Amino acid sequence: MQPQIDIDLLASPYCFLDRGAEFNIWLKFRLHYRGPITLVTTGSIFDPAATLIKSRIEIIDAKTGERVKFPEVQILAVEEKSRSAEGPALILEPEGESYCFWSTNIPGDRWREHPFDISGLVPDREYTVRYRDHGITRWFVGSQPAQQETRSEVQTQSAPLTVNLLGEKAPSFTTRQKLPPPPPVSTTMTTSTPICSLSGSPPFTIYLDWKLHSDRAISALLTRENGHNIGLDIRDPERNGRRIGPPADGMYGDVDESPPDEEELLRFQKNGDIFPQSYTLAVEPKRNGLVNADTWNLRSGKTYALTLRKSKWRWRYEDELADGELQDPARVVEILRQEPRVEWKPECRLEFRAD
Is pLDDT above 50 for 249? Predict the structure, then answer.
């Protein structure tokens, strides 16, 4: 049996040319073999400093069909830096996952990571990330230290190495000049009572009001993070603001895994429009006792703080959409899902007392 390597080629959906958000292209690879093997990576797909200039992975402009070129001098300089620090060999363990990254937001001095140069990209274009070949010409069985790969006693293999690209479709990404701003909304948090009864009587309900501050109507998809109600955190000021609840509802289906994110369509038609949300703290365990109560860590007589996690919205001004599209909520959702997700931290904090 010859070694076999499976590769996943992945990319972030958006690349912002102002570097307002991190953009990544990465390889995830797994070895199928009876033991470890060592690859001599120089100039191959596993040499991140050389992969793009040698077109092991190609970035193709979907509009022109042209391949994006990358500056060779810069990449080779980092390639030499990586080689002197770690050596030109990569040891793969069977069934274990390994990665190579190209990113707009890394220093470029870590092994198998390299800065992604965006100078050759054009705003508002779609690009396809395409695997061409792996470029591995030398490999051997075992986990010899990298510095030994040039010694005469190391027998390199002449048999071809099988590399399989997983996935039916090549990943693609869209460029934008800059990260969109957060939507023109404010957030207000109130509670049904200033005291949270640990018995649940009366119920302790938190209300959120999202208020539009614009004369232009907007449509938005609000993403609710999986298992985290409406994005609330309970924090303990006496423990440096440590988060102590509510517990993430990680039980989904019949197995212990995270449920999918939920998206909710919001339509703000005029300045001052409010979209309300609410959540009542559970005082009893959830999911047949598998998930603790929201008030599990609260103690009578103590003061706690409510804060919000980062909000995640995809949004557009409605005057940028056609009239026919506005009449069809499903079409609005489809359009918004093509927009980049904007994250920001609402400035909300409210104290309450447990009793």
Answer: yes
